[in-house]
Amino acid sequence: MVEHANIRVVHRGGSKINFRAPVITSDSKFLLCASGECVKVYSTTTEECVHELRGHTDLVTGVLLKPSNHLQVYSCSTDGTVKLWDFFVLSIYLMPEVASGMNVCVCVCFFVELFQLVALHLPQSGDQLAEGLELSAVLPDVKASPESIAFGRGGEYIASVKGLCLVVFFFRKQKTFSFYLKQNSGNGRKNTFTCIACHPKDDVISTGHEDGKIRLWRNFNHKKEYTYLTLHWHHNAVSSLCFTPEGTNLLSGGVESVLVQWKYGQESQRDFLPRLGATITHVTVSPDGALFCTSHADNSKIYFGFGLFSLTQSALTVFAGESVTTDLMVDPRSKALVLNGKPGHLQFYSLQRDKLLFNLDIVQQEYIHELGLQQVEVVKAAFDSSGERLATVEERKPKAAELELSLKLWTFDQQTQSFVLDTTISAPHEGGITAMCFAPAAVDHRTATLVSASKDGHFKAWQQTVSPTQTGDEGPSWECDFVGSYHSLAPQCCCFSADGSLLAIGFQEVVTLWSPATWELLTTLSQPPGDIRNLCFGRLSCSKYLMGTTVKNLLCCWNLLTCSLEWSTSMDVSLLLSDPLSENMAAFCTLDGCTDLFVFKPCEPRPLFCQKAVCPGTVTRAVFSPRDSLQESCDESCQWLNRSQLYFLSQHMDLMTFITQAEEKQLMASNKQLVVDDTVAMTPFHLLLGARRQGGGDLDQPDHPDTSARAQLPQGSAAIKELLQTPAHVLPAATFLCSMFVQSLLISVADSSKTKHIEEEMESEKEEEDSFDEEEDEKTGVVRAKWASMEAGEAAEAAAPAMTRTQARELRRVKKMERGWLSGLLDC
Fold this sequence. Notes:
Layout: E1 7-14, E2 23-24, E3 30-35, E4 38-43, E5 49-54, E6 60-66, E7 69-77, E8 82-86, E9 91-97, E10 103-105, E11 108-110, E12 115-120, E13 129-131, E14 135-139, E15 149-151, E16 157-162, E17 165-170, E18 175-180, E19 193-198, E20 205-209, E21 213-218, E22 227-232, E23 238-243, E24 249-254, E25 259-263, E26 266-273, E27 280-285, E28 291-296, E29 300-305, E30 314-317, E31 329-330, E32 337-340, E33 345-350, E34 355-361, E35 377-383, E36 389-396, E37 404-413, E38 418-426, E39 433-438, E40 449-454, E41 459-465, E42 477-484, E43 491-496, E44 503-507, E45 510-515, E46 520-525, E47 532-537, E48 545-550, E49 554-559, E50 564-570, E51 573-578, E52 585-591, E53 594-600, E54 609-616, E55 622-626, E56 644-649, E57 654-660, H1 661-670, H2 684-688, H3 718-725, H4 734-745, H5 749-782, H6 784-789, H7 791-794, H8 805-815, H9 820-827
Parallel strand pairs: 9-13
Antiparallel strand pairs: 1-57, 2-3, 3-4, 4-5, 6-7, 7-8, 8-9, 10-11, 11-12, 12-14, 15-16, 16-17, 17-18, 19-20, 20-21, 21-22, 23-24, 24-25, 25-26, 27-28, 28-29, 29-30, 31-32, 32-33, 33-34, 35-36, 36-37, 37-38, 39-40, 40-41, 41-42, 43-44, 44-45, 45-46, 47-48, 48-49, 49-50, 51-52, 52-53, 53-54, ...
Helix pairs in contact: 3-4
């Protein structure tokens, strides 16, 4: 087996954007988030990801704007590098290289076992890659989270918290002061530090604690004279603190999902922004104070513009939730990726835009934000083949009570363009549901059928029915049509054949085949020892095969015509799935801490494609997504990607996929700037940029036939020269340049009056010329007869030259001149 180099594994979305606090640009137009191995740049207006800063080879651990240039940003990663980006042009300026095994966060260096705060001097080098060797220790023992470190007023000192200790280091004095708290407060709760923030104008340090209190520290430059003021509203640990740029307000957040605003100097005055959806992990304010942003535990960010408690917030969510309990699914209607998201919801995620489309509320209950409370979670979901029906399973596991289980059936409503709840079945099984699937939409099926398997040793078939007494406003209902079991064994997995004529259920070590028409047990399939983990029917030409995996690291293939084992191989398959549009199957195998991919057909022993180490860890969630258009690949190793595209989730919640070289070239070509056709109307900006026709360089020649028809480009002006000749990173705001450009196109008042005077003179001359022409016509009519009689005599004489129109106009002007000065001269 040979790996094919023309197929690559690429990142398609996902990742955690709440791993670190976001960075807001100085103009509040962009939001920069550390996301996996890249930095994503989001627009605060459209919520779209406009850029991805890629260059790191490992997890990005910090993002920071460069103080001297607001168009550049630093990023650091566990790959041991710090990179300086111009996030508008996506270029890297400086990459100081640090020794491997360290995690650099601007000036914070985290070793493998001990976390230390160090200062890194960035060398001034013209090379793109430089090595940073000047490291100096600042604090010997710090906490791993950046929320526990903050710079003080003007960068004069830096403060760090860890455990029950607050440490303040003054750079000029080179002195360190430490302050300790008791382990427990008066009510028995812990005083452990959780976060820290420094006032931008005053020497004040704000610290958050595990018991929900906030302390404002003063006079900490004297170890024995320090004081602190205690604020208390949060009932649980304070996760983030942040001062506004002017220091007039202090923002705090925690598990309550409420953003609290404290008035600095009047701490008794508080404002609240409740019901933000999930636990607040980070709070950030833009440098100009116009935008506020909160990061949440469900991998979402909510930002508020121009007034924290007055305007509606906008939400930005990628993948929500810490883990995926449902399978990865593709909605047949919207082609969106569907999985569980925020607590009690299913999220519909756009694969093309890397953006959350909407959340479907499954639980339909208010989420209670409290640590240790068992919440209702969505654990299973399934679509039918048409996307018209959706089945969900929600459960709650109290510590000292029975399992609360509900099965809900949904139908897509064309009017609301959303799913509407049809039936809720409380306690559908006595144990947890292990698998669930819809029967394919076959011709011989009378009604929709859903099969659910449970740990209680039974599987149930649910069918959609319409009651004769049902009114028009009521929707269809569901009822149990059959209950099956096999030797009191617990079913682990189930699946239907492509035509819906067979149902395969794995009861621990036994595979059973059932007829959905009569619910009769047809046969059982033998296999080597080991519980069945996955079952998949073959499709199209391979429909006579049934594939299965076991916990004993075996991949088995049964022939349904002979009811015998066709072949088997030793392979630790963590996930097996089939392509709904072809005969291909994909098997993710775990080996030496990494996951390998094998694509094969059940009828052929040779794999079509194999890829070693597609990602670290174990892949347990993947899905084939049908393509909008059929791809054409000549290489045999790439043909399995013609009809569908394979997506999978890594252990870091990164959405990965496989892409061919041809498809990558198409994507790169589509990202190029579009050229405007010459038929488009000319605009000032078109003239400003000096657009040329697509006819080659001959158009610039003066004797070219099209040269006279071309619009003249504008002559040089101060606005145009400033815009085109000044480097982009030092230009003023675009709004200022736009006003300059518009003013350069306007005509001044003096020029306007002069132009008006010239136009009046031209109109008067035209009127005089018309009157002169009329007088000449009259004279011509009177003497026309005399000219006719004299025509024969004058024919021999030479004709006198005709007077031009200009000469006639000048003669008329001379006739109308004032001649009084001439009579005065004669009298003298």
